[in-house]
Amino acid sequence: MKKITTLLIALIVLTACSQPVKDKQPDDSSQQRYIVLMNPTVNNIKTFKYLTENGIFTLPAHYKAIGVYHTKQAYNFQQTADFLRNEGILNVELQPITEVLNPSQLYQHNSCTEQFTSLFKQSEGIIFFGGPDMPPATYNEPTNLLTVITDAHRHYMELSFLFHLLGGYQDSTFAPLLEQKKEYRILGICLGMQSMNVATGGTMVQDIPTELYQCQTAEDVLQLPADNQHRNYFTNFGVDGDLSWGSFHRIRFTKESNLNDLQSDETPMVWSSHHQAIERMGKGFIPVATSMDGKIVEAVTHTEYPNVVGVQFHPEVPDIYKPNVPIHAMPNSTDSSYAHRFPNIQGVDFHNTFWKRIGGMY
Hints:
Helix content: 10-25%
Distance between the termini: 22 Å
Order of helices and strands: EHEHEHEHEHEHHEEEEEEHH
CATH topology: Rossmann fold
Largest sheet: 10 strands, mixed
């Protein structure tokens, strides 16, 4: 089996201290190192704790996480502070951002610039997780009636941070922070990848079924081939509360991909849950994986910064790696685990190799 090449970023075991992080000098192998973890909800911390403790995602010593969030986010991060304290997790520091932004301030120096710069200088990488729809005002489009905005302040902060890191078409004179440290690692998962694209001047398809497949109902979507269904629309009917929140479909890596050396006929089965997708690409990004029909961008890399990668799918879901946990994908189905349904390079081996390569970057 050929291995996946660079995917970037080392994540961490996670932790608990909610005091601001002070500036630190560049460290050698014996000193503390930091990774920034955006949106450090309890679930995100549990997920990466599972990956690291079970040897799926491996890291060297001397790493801590800085969990960054905005104080106006919809989530109550006191829950995270309580969880870290109750679990005795000591290697995550929570750092709030309080400055309020709006769409007109995101793609320029603003009241958050100093804090963004400090976080960048203190860390070796950053992870942007999945989440809800971005406000279309952030990419200069009207709001589709199927776009649901529930956490605008999170998006404003994350988009502005990414613009500071990567720059974008919005201002060709802006000097990205990564010009100071081109090997810096950024991983975007689902919304994280979409945010990377928008922050650099790209746009979004606001609803995949209606815009790309001319579907108007959940029943229409479920008549499509499985590879064209990008979230579990069986959940729309509300008759089975135990259904998985994700769907499964194959992806195909492009000939230009620098993420792996998979054979052209090896098409991994990924966990997917989204109804929006990249439309116009942001500055510096190229697609390196797509859906089987080529309509959806499934992974991107950056032309200038080799350790910047985004994936539309969800390689972090713990149930992918649990061989005895059945996944209930549709009503009245015979359930089996992901590993049982999708073994070897098409499924669980692909994901394990993915994370081992990410950990190997450190």
